[in-house]
Amino acid sequence: MLPKTSFEIITEFIEQAGFNTGFTEVNFPIRFPDYDLRLSASEGINYLLGAATSGNKSIGFFHSSVYFNLHNFTKSECIFITTSLPENLCVPVIFCKNIVSFKNKLTTAIRVSEESRLPVILVISESVLFNYCEIDDFEFDNERMTPNINKRSLDMKISTDNFLDNLNIAEALLSATFDNKFSSGDTVSLNDEQGTFFDYIVPHIKSPQLESLEKCSEIFISKSEETFFKMLCLHYPLTVNYKLLPDKSKEELVPILCPGCPFAFIFSQIKTEDYLVFTDIKCPSLSRHLNVEIREPDFTVGLGHNIRNKLLFIGNLSNFKYPLINIAHDVEIILLKDIDIAQEFYPEVKLHKLQKAGVTLPYSCNNIKKYGQAKINPKKCKCLKKNESPKCIDKSFCPALFKSDDIILVNDCLCTGCGLCKKVCPYGAVK
Amino acid sequence: MNYCIKMYGIHRKIFDKTARLLLKTFAESDYFVQTYSDVPENYFAPLKLKINIIGSHKNTFKHIFLDFDNLSTSSNDESELISPSKMNVKYSPSGLHYWAVSGKLFHIIEDISPAYISGCLLEEKMEKELGYFRKFSY
């Protein structure tokens, strides 16, 4: 048996556990097309909570931190899988540091959610997605600690007392499953390969693992996870003596954007150095390679009221809620059409006419289609022959273009025919 | 001997196939295998997989870098770099070079056998891929 990918493990889990409602946050690294609802993270959370309260097994995938106010107990299991550490605690949180424990953590999460009638957040490390592991089929424990229906389970409203009762049920289950403790000198980090991390935390209840952390004379934590530890110290309250580990530098690789990336196209069309550019599309490549600041549209629109620079906001049409006429003069907006429904309020305008808010590009990162196929004329392809850096690769960051001997070739499978390489080639080598 | 193998590649399908076959090969050679991955920045950014294969109690690793698509821009002297450009293998849109790079790994780690991967490629009638793999692994 060959090892399974994380995606295959999650898909099997969804099928075998019988989840019937799902949601994926836009740009979550793994795609689940059936769960792509184009809702914001907070809208997605509410959607899943509503579904679970009405008795649908619900699962959601987020790359942002998950937090919500719970008003009702759930009638069915509800699991939020996220790659971000919680910024606040509202329901039991289970952590999965490595792929080997992923299956166990998934089955525990569903059991805890079922027994406690609370949603459960499963935080997975960066190393869990896109990894491999040999696992057998999932086995779900059908024996319940609490009766399926009793008088209290029909009373779905949450009060302080019954909420604490249910948190205690979660704690009892989790402490019976996981009994790891921390020792002095441990590295406690979710994303650092070395060391160890919490198996779970339940709000308001100090687990034996948390108590062991308090007894450590010193632990080491990653700088990027310090906010989480500060939150823990305030929540319980807790005293932790920690030292910060420096963030590890990552291997430098050739920058790559998606083929047909609308941002690469926009940046080739307008003088972006004249603008402060913002987007709410949470793609780390945009900030890293194109210097785009990732912020919500509200922030950009608000900022526009008193700032010297010109502002440019690029975002998905489905996520933009402002009437364009009320936006300050120096805020220009490009909306990417990520939904198929006709948007009559925003006529499609050619990009070079961008002088005021209201341009809509006919596609977004979510629905890039294949428009054609770039072809290179080897006689005209001169950058490499002249020992110059190839402009088509440098300016488009396109993975479909690659160097082969002294010319550039196109990978037909990846090329979308967006024409950006043709636009930036100084020798007219691209057809 | 312990090895730390870092694999980077943008052809996700072929990367996936190579990774699975290599992991199976290491596990069957009685190595203890640990894997670590990284979340790619976007849907087309390179996949990254780090495989620690542990055969001895010593806490020292030989570092090997499988750069399937000539993606690395930094030079790490500690790692033995295997990439198409270093091996003078032509970059192929269909990802044949992945099999050449994978094959070369069997030259460095001598106590693992390429037979499992050869057998799989033969069974799936991937003759071109098998040709590239054999050329560099035997």
Explain this structure:
The complex is a heterodimer of chains A (431) and B (138). Chain A contains twelve helices and 17 strands. In chain A, strand 16 and strand 17 form a beta hairpin. In chain B, 39% of the residues lie in helices and 22% in strands. Chain B is globular. The mean pLDDT of chain B is 91. At the A-B interface, strand 7, helix 9 and strand 16 of A face helix 1, strand 2 and strand 3 of B.
Overall pLDDT level of chain A = 86
Residue ranges of chain A: pLDDT <50 for 5 or more in a row?
none
Mean pLDDT across every amino acid position of chain B: 91
- How many strand units of chain B? 5
How large is the count of helical segments of chain B?
5
CA-atom Rg of chain A in angstroms: 25 Å
Helix content of chain A: 25-40%
Q: What would you call the structural class of chain A?
A: alpha/beta
Q: Work out the helicity level of chain B.
A: 25-40%
Distance between the termini of chain B: 21 Å
What order do the strands of the largest sheet of chain B run in, or round the barrel if closed?
Answer: 2-3-1-4-5
Basic shape of chain B: globular
Alpha-carbon Rg of chain B, integer? 14 Å
The computed structural class of chain B is alpha/beta
Biggest interface found: A-B, 44 and 36 residues
How would the blueprint of this fold be written?
The complex is a heterodimer of chains A (431) and B (138).
Chain A (H helix, E strand, L loop, with lengths): L3 E2 H12 L3 E4 L16 H13 L4 E5 L15 E5 L10 E4 L5 H15 L3 E5 L7 E2 L17 H4 L5 H18 L22 E2 L6 H8 L3 E4 L3 H10 L6 E4 L16 H8 L5 E5 L4 H7 L2 E2 L2 H7 L6 E7 L14 E6 L22 E3 L29 H6 L4 E4 L2 E4 L9 H5 L7
Parallel strand pairs in A: 2-3, 3-4, 4-6, 5-6, 9-10, 11-12, 11-13, 13-14, 14-15
Antiparallel strand pairs in A: 1-7, 5-8, 16-17
Helix pairs in contact in A: 3-5
Chain B lengths: L2 E7 L2 H17 L3 E7 L8 E8 L7 E6 L12 E3 L1 H4 L8 H13 L6 H9 L3 H11 L1
Parallel strand pairs in B: 1-4, 4-5
Antiparallel strand pairs in B: 1-3, 2-3
Helix pairs in contact in B: 3-5
